[in-house]
Design goal:
alpha+beta; six-stranded antiparallel β-sheet; Phosphorylase Kinase, domain 1; Aminoglycoside 3'-phosphotransferase, Chain: A, domain 2; 45% helix; 9 helices; two-stranded antiparallel ribbon
Length: 333
Amino acid sequence: MKYERAVEILREHYGLSDCEVSHIEGGVTNTTYLVTSSDGTQYIVQKLNQIFTNETVIDYQKLSKDLIAQGWDLQQLIPTIDGRVCVADQQEIWRLLTYIPADPVSDHTSVDLMHGAGSLLARLHRSLAMSAHVPVYTIPHCHDTPYLLHTLDELSEQLVGESHELAEQVLSAYRTLDPLPSAPKQLIHGDPRTTNILFRNGKPYTYIDFDMVMIGTVWVDIGDLLRAACGDTTQTHAQYNSEYIDAIIDGYATAAGLTGSPDLFHSIAMNAMRTIALELAARFLIDIVYDDHFGWDGSLFVSRSEHNLARAQAQCQIYVHSMLHEDLTPVLP
């Protein structure tokens, strides 16, 4: 039977024995399945990446209660038969979540949708700032850009060919970036890319996947959303669109009620996008050495390393396009 392990988890720990299970594509970290029970009720069941712990699930349980109380429609954890928040079994962590109906995922979007995505992120930041929750667990060095680039520098000699050349270019480009300005630290989503937004009736509706929630500055999330809007859902091809970028920035600034210089906010947001793009390129290149973090598509790539190289190349192209967008000279060719 296909997806045997997911079916076994559902039957033994959640009492769901007569279900249809199908894999949901697009995730780069967790393995996600859509579950349809015999009565038509739908759920999401996930096998978490090994970088996460039980505390990741408990953190989400607590944070989601805060956000739901503020009016957000979020996935809710469904306890196991014996009342646990997740299944920790055979060095695996599985969880079952409610399903939120949404528009089908599509690579196609519009300026209005991107303006709405910027607004949605600003509203999420406002809600997260009101939460008293402090995550018990965060991924070590998550969005710690200096640390990740330093790690890449130390590992670059273990990379060969295109990977080594790209690593040297990423390091050179990063050294030319201005540091992001200091800003008050608060809870942020940590992974607010467009594939973690649910759309309903053609509009951004809510966020999913809060596993990377952390204390940081809003610039991390702003830069990551901008970066994600410039790539396809597989993160292997750059699809830079300056209109989308401008729409996200304007949507965020408007919803956040920012009163300072629009040009300055735009400039910092663009620098945040470049910073996160190079940071993520570094993470993909680091995983070529360690070969243990990101999932990979065996139908398109012969190895995780090949898939990670394609991802890193796409992030570098996003950096290049963002520099050209502001008439700046990119370090990368």
